[in-house]
UniProtKB/TrEMBL annotation:
SUPFAM superfamilies: NAD(P)-binding Rossmann-fold domains
One Pfam family in the UniProt entry: adh_short
Gene3D superfamilies tied to this protein: NAD(P)-binding Rossmann-like Domain
Keywords tagged on the record: Oxidoreductase
Source organism of this protein record: Aspergillus mulundensis
Record-given protein name: Uncharacterized protein
UniProt-recorded Gene Ontology molecular function terms: oxidoreductase activity
């Protein structure tokens, strides 16, 4: 387990990257995304933050909070139903006005539904939210991430030296849950089930992030499992399910991660994990981490998929979906 002290120490080095860092928090209006954005605001010098979600009232409260926490920060809310890829493109047009994006965090998610719930774009909404939209953001913002990775001048004793810039994309879902996919129906048009939706989103995330990490070696890509964190994730569930999960949260208290700690750990995933390849299996380029910030993955399945070239297959499928939906 990486200790919280070590994590806070690493996060405090954010200042050394200088003023004007840009953080994009897709799902930043609640829970883990909000907590990570808060840590970013606390540790960075004059940062610019983009919060993306649907809840305008909640975003206004957070913006006021962030201003009080760091008066030199600027926070912008971009309202967006993220499960639609065309909306993602629209919101990215705003963010692309920035020359660089240093931290891109995805926590936009909900409890998956039992039945396939198709969006106007023909994708299952949960799969779109947890996988396709996140990859679309990355594909659109790769130039900004790459620019952020360019070397910067050292300070103080390190003056005259350079160090790599900060450029990190992190998807919060569930590394370790990778499994067998239905190869001829990756978007689960005819094979949808709760368990398939979970396995496909998780496994495709890992394969695509590793593929992207290989072709963009200066940017750090991470798939993270937050553990059990008490957030707003159950807000759309029925009353009975909400009560059952609250009861489980009480029982799970000894193992739970507070939302504030989760925020620090996800900022650490951006600041502390470099672009030089993730820990775990040989050839793994993306980082896969658990709630303790240590490596976490179903390595057997991943090694086999890696050997079979499934990363290219999944990324090719993802680009086909982008072409079909966005033209
Ligand atoms: N909490 C846990 O114990 C846990 C465990 C394992 C994995 N995870 C994963 O961690 C991620 C973050 O979860 P969390 O616990 O922080 O949940 P949360 O508090 O519910 O936050 C989810 C965020 O996603 C946004 N969002 C949801 N649906 C959206 C949509 N259709 N369009 C735009 N934004 C949308 C919400 O914003 P608006 O309300 O403004 O739309 C909110 O900011 C999720 O992917 C979840 O699956 C969480």
């Amino acid at each position: 387990m990486v200790s919280l002290d070590k994590i806070k120490q690493a996060n405090s080095t954010l200042k050394s990257y200088g003023p004007g860092l840009v953080g994009v928090f897709v799902g930043g209006t609640s829970g883990i995304g909000e907590a990570t954005a808060r840590s970013f605001v606390r540790h960075a010098v004059s940062p610019r933050i983009y919060l993306i979600g649907r809840n305008e009232a909640q975003a206004s409260k957070i913006i006021a909070d962030f201003k009080a926490l760091n008066p030199e920060s600027t926070t912008t809310f971009l309202k967006c139903e993220v499960s639609l890829l065309k909306n993602v493109d629209e919101v990215c047009t705003e963010i692309q006005k920035e020359e660089k994006v240093h931290v891109l965090l995805f926590t936009s998610g909900s409890m998956p539904s039992r039945k396939r719930d198709e969006s106007a774009e023909g994708l299952d909404k949960t799969l779109a939210l947890h996988y396709y939209a996140r990859m679309r953001f990355i594909a659109n913002l790769l130039p900004q991430l790459t620019a952020a990775a360019s070397p910067i001048e050292g300070e103080g004793e390190r003056q005259g030296e350079t160090k790599p810039g900060l450029a990190s994309a992190i998807s919060v879902l569930e590394p370790g849950g990778e499994g067998e996919m239905i190869r001829d129906d990756l978007s689960l048009k005819t094979h949808y089930s709760l368990s398939n939706a979970r396995t496909h989103a998780i496994t495709m995330t890992r394969l695509s992030l590793s593929h992207l990490a290989t072709s963009n070696p200066t940017v750090s890509f991470t798939h993270s499992f937050p553990g059990v964190v008490r957030t707003g994730i159950i807000r759309d569930m029925g009353l009975a399910v909400r009560l059952a999960i609250r009861a489980l949260w009480v029982l799970a208290r000894p193992w739970m991660v507070t939302v504030a700690e989760s925020g620090e750990r996800h900022l650490y995933a951006a600041v502390g994990l470099k672009s030089d390849g993730g820990a775990g299996t040989a050839g793994e380029k993306a980082h896969l981490v658990g709630a303790d910030s240590e490596p976490r993955g179903n390595w057997g399945v991943l090694e086999r998929y890696q050997a079979e070239g499934m990363g290219e297959v999944v990324w090719g499928h993802t680009e086909d979906v982008f072409r079909e939906v966005c033209g």
